[in-house]
Write a structure and sequence with these properties.
seven-stranded mixed β-sheet; four-stranded antiparallel β-sheet
Length: 128
């Protein structure tokens, strides 16, 4: 059973930075064999894709709204995924979720239905 635990959320002023972490655990689970994603959901809105890292070549992908401001990365030893968020805007306010899908190499990494393991989420609030 896979466990994904997000942390690092909080309240920050516009223009500030936060780093989210997603600690992964579980029998035989490794972030190096999972395509990992970050999604977010704002109040009253659908969950949306933020960033992903493909397991096979560590390729990274970003939503247009965060490109150039957010960076997805991972620590293979700690089995932890990160999301560095800079130049935060009020519209980045949401609950952020970490997700995983083992050995996924398809092109639908931006679709939440692809992922079968999810964390509980961490709240990010950006004040303007």
């Amino acid at each position: 059973q896979v466990q994904l635990v997000e942390s690092g959320g909080g309240l920050v002023q516009a223009g500030g930075s936060l780093r989210l972490s997603c600690a992964a655990s579980g029998r035989s689970f490794s972030i190096t064999t999972n395509t990992m994603g970050w999604f977010r959901q704002a109040p009253g809105k659908e969950r949306e894709f933020v960033a992903a890292m493909r397991w096979v070549n560590s390729a990274t992908y970003y939503a247009d709204s965060v490109k150039g401001r957010f960076t997805i990365s991972r620590d293979n030893v700690k089995n932890t995924l990160y999301l560095q968020m800079n130049s935060l805007k009020a519209e980045d306010t949401a609950v952020y979720y970490c997700a995983a899908r083992a050995y996924y190499s398809g092109s639908d990494y931006y679709k939440d239905k692809v992922y079968n393991s999810w964390g509980q989420g961490t709240q990010v609030t950006v004040s303007s």
